Amino acid sequence: MFRKILKQKEILFWSILTLIIGSIAITLASQNTLLDSLSITFTVFAALALFFTAAMWLEEMIHEICNP
Description:
Layout: H1 2-29, H2 33-66
């Protein structure tokens, strides 16, 4: 059961990371102020989500190692 949860968190982690990279690329390529501000806001929120996802993923891995 833990492996299934861990797999979902891995997919979520990589998906959010891909979204952050795309958002940064849009920010750098865009000439529109509104699009830039929305992209930067999205990047900040996605970075927070990435941090908490990575923390939960790490906690699950430690839990799996310590309690086999």
